[in-house]
Amino acid sequence: MASMLRQTIRSLPTACQISSRSISCSSHLQSPAVQAKTKKTLAKPGVKNVVIVDGVRTPFLLSGTTYADLMPHDLARTALQGLLQRTNVPREVVDYIVYGTVIQEVKTSNVAREAALGAGFSDKTPAHTVTMACISSNQAMTTGVGLIASGQCDVIVAGGVEFMSDVPIRHSRKMRKTMLSLNKAKTLGQRLSVISRIRPNYFAPELPAVAEFSTSETMGHSADRLAAAFSVSRVEQDEYALRSHTLAKKAQDAGLLSDIIPYKVPGRETVEKDNGIRPSSMEQMTKLKPAFIKPHGSVTAANSSFLTDGASAVLIMSEEKALAMGYKPKAYLRDFVYVSQDPKDQLLLGPTYATPKVLETAGLTLADIDVFEFHEAFAGQILSNLKAMDSDWFAQNYMGRKTKVGAPALDKFNMWGGSLSLGHPFGATGCRLVMAAAHRLKKEGGQYGLVAACAAGGQGHGMIVELYPQ
């Protein structure tokens, strides 16, 4: 596939030509809230309206920094406590808690339950943890939507957490088997016999997998190959990464990242903002060497998302329940889809497949969308998706569609930064995307937002967020 894509897509528009506006840092970040232009609502007869009341997240920090001595459930607990404080929702009203995570801490395998108990929720409130790579908290939210839509629950807390500062490292399988055998040995002779079989290579540790199990390829390699297939240059990737950091810094300085709650880290300072936002310059970025395919790759540390610690939480209710409790919701959570495709050559193309599908489900077109919030795993991944979405050839040959869906206009796209700059705690990013969409809709006077993300395994997610009537 890669060679076919390279040969055919070289004639497609460059990434900067996809939108009528160039990659820029729009000044409308500072504009006041605008009254939304009312379009049709996506409410469906006989289906409960599900709303997001509010959401919070801890500051997203580079792994190995201020959160380094914590545990995942510490961050998740803090997000849950912050949500309770911001919304004043009584703990006993919450019917269910769902949390997403990817690399699980073995001591708290069901981190949703441990964090909930630590945050003071009743031990009668069920909680479970889901994992779906980078769309884990997306899955947590849509699980909550399903519970409400089916009439099982009225009030759900969903969220996600990832803690990359301390990931589980195992003994080798040979050593694990030896230790289990040693535990079963009953006599001194049996124990000595087991110990005598240990060899030096038994002590080699096993790190968490950074490669796809099905392909044995790291995501960075996939991103590099994808960028090459779609002829996305190193310059384009660096320009996009610089855009992400510049927009994030403007949003941070303007106080627009209002879902962040301060966190007093025990024994350390109070953290109040993300620490990975670092606008640089093209000159500095060009000095970095390829991170994955050396020496000719185009993916570098500067145009990739970084290992991040952080947690998020959102309060989801049926509209009827929210209004009965006196809440003014932020937005409706409308149609959503999950997609999956070839994990080898299309690992990171989830948004391309999810976008037209969720638009059709909702009865919308790309032109109806006022705000786009796409997960930025790599600059090359984002730009490749934009090219794929704007290609009739790709739609016809790979998606079974007659025509392309089109590419989002960049002046509607990730205007407050994205995962490249804000950070990407795998299990927590989905909630950040939804809250950013909701807040931007209100700020910019839009009605519909589209959230999309890719995930390991060649999977993806798309969701329509509709501003709650103001």
Automatic annotation (TrEMBL):
Reactions accelerated catalytically: an acyl-CoA + acetyl-CoA = a 3-oxoacyl-CoA + CoA; octanoyl-CoA + acetyl-CoA = 3-oxodecanoyl-CoA + CoA; dodecanoyl-CoA + acetyl-CoA = 3-oxotetradecanoyl-CoA + CoA; hexanoyl-CoA + acetyl-CoA = 3-oxooctanoyl-CoA + CoA
Pathway: Lipid metabolism; fatty acid beta-oxidation
Domain Thiolase N-terminal: 50-320
Enzyme Commission identifier(s): 2.3.1.155, 2.3.1.16
Any one GO cellular component localisation term in the record: mitochondrial fatty acid beta-oxidation multienzyme complex
Domain Thiolase C-terminal residue range list: 327-466
GO biological process: fatty acid beta-oxidation
Location of the protein in the cell: Endoplasmic reticulum; Mitochondrion inner membrane; Mitochondrion outer membrane
GO terms for MF: acetyl-CoA C-acetyltransferase activity; acetyl-CoA C-myristoyltransferase activity
PANTHER family: ACETYL-COA C-ACYLTRANSFERASE, TRIFUNCTIONAL ENZYME SUBUNIT BETA, MITOCHONDRIAL
Function text: Mitochondrial trifunctional enzyme catalyzes the last three of the four reactions of the mitochondrial beta-oxidation pathway. The mitochondrial beta-oxidation pathway is the major energy-producing process in tissues and is performed through four consecutive reactions breaking down fatty acids into acetyl-CoA. Among the enzymes involved in this pathway, the trifunctional enzyme exhibits specificity for long-chain fatty acids.
Name of this chain's protein: Trifunctional enzyme subunit beta, mitochondrial
UniProt source species: Xenopus laevis
